[in-house]
Write a structure and sequence with these properties.
By secondary structure, the chain is of the alpha/beta class. It has a single domain, classed as TIM Barrel, CATH 3.20.20. Strands 1-2-3-4-5-6-7-8 form an eight-stranded parallel β-barrel, surrounded by seven helices. Strand 4, helix 6 and strand 5 form a beta-alpha-beta unit. It is globular, with a radius of gyration of 17 Å. The chain binds 3-methyl-2-oxobutanoic acid (KIV). 3-methyl-2-oxobutanoic acid (KIV) binds next to strand 6.
């Protein structure tokens, strides 16, 4: 593991390196300077300014109301505290409805917000957008599987890739996305077996959330692991304040469990 004390900062090459060495990548969300500082100092390799801020910070029921201005604001205040981690920012709902709009908003997240990579919830129809961003050397994380921005279209939050048809479609989608120039893949709420098969066909690092242990890294929502999110904790998450007295210790335990394969277990995964 590259530790914060070694004063190296995480880059895309660090993430590729970790993948090739078989060391798991630990990722968390953050939305403000204070928490970002704690997450960064603990040695988390990726900080995501997720549009989950729409729910955990803004109090909305879904991520749909989040605007690009919200993302720029939160990315900027997180970036001010990040010295070690690689900083990814989410492109919110309708901020990438065509390639030109996507390019303009990705530019804003990077130039005004300070993001090092943008994440977009992608499917086949986003291929041309990924290609366009990649041509401008914008690092891209494509988020597939359960796509919370599409909750109203998908009819709820459901585990993806359960049937063999769904699994094949997801794997084909991932291959196309990789070929289009994405640098990272994020898999949300996908059957562990499908995630494993998909991972065997893809060379870019894959970060999972509710996608089992056979991917290259894990991400969780910070407020979930600190037990301060409203409502029930998702099955794939874990409250690391249980047994820890400080936020720092809870974050460190999460990183440690990702690195030593103690998290996620079958209890946090889907069949
Ligand atoms: O918005 C977010 O925080 C995310 C993670 C849950 C992966 O997309």
């Amino acid at each position: 593991m590259y530790t914060n004390n070694e004063l190296k900062t995480v880059t895309l090459n660090t993430l590729r390196d970790l993948k090739s060495k078989g060391e798991k990548i630990a990722c968390l969300t953050a939305y403000d300077a204070t928490f970002a500082n704690l997450v960064d100092k603990a040695g988390t390799e990726i900080i995501l300014v997720g549009d989950s801020l729409g729910m955990v910070v803004q109090g909305h029921k879904t991520t749909v109301p989040v605007k690009i201005e919200d993302m720029i604001y939160h990315t900027k205040i997180v970036a001010s505290s990040v010295n070690y981690s690689f900083l990814i920012s989410d492109m919110p709902f309708m901020s990438f409805y065509n390639a030109n709009v996507a390019l303009d908003n990705a530019k804003r997240l990077m130039q005004d917000g300070g993001a090092q990579m943008v994440k977009l919830e992608g499917n086949r129809s986003q291929i041309n957008i990924i290609k366009k961003l990649a041509l401008s050397d914008i690092p891209i994380c494509a988020h597939i599987g359960l796509r919370p921005q599409s909750v109203n279209k998908m009819g709820g939050y459901k585990v993806q890739g359960k049937s063999s048809n769904e699994a094949n479609a997801l794997i084909q989608e991932a291959k196309k996305i990789e070929d289009s120039g994405a640098d990272l893949l994020l898999l949300e709420c996908v059957s562990s077996q499908t995630a494993k098969e998909l991972a065997s066909e893809i060379s870019i690092p894959i970060i999972g959330i509710g996608a089992g242990s056979e991917v290259d890294g894990q991400i969780l929502v910070l407020y979930d692991i600190l037990g301060i999110s409203q409502g029930q904790l998702p099955k794939f998450s874990k409250n690391y304040m249980d047994g820890n007295n400080t936020i720092e210790d809870a974050i460190k335990q999460y990183i440690q469990e990702v690195k030593t394969l103690k998290y996620p277990t079958d209890k946090h995964s889907f069949k």
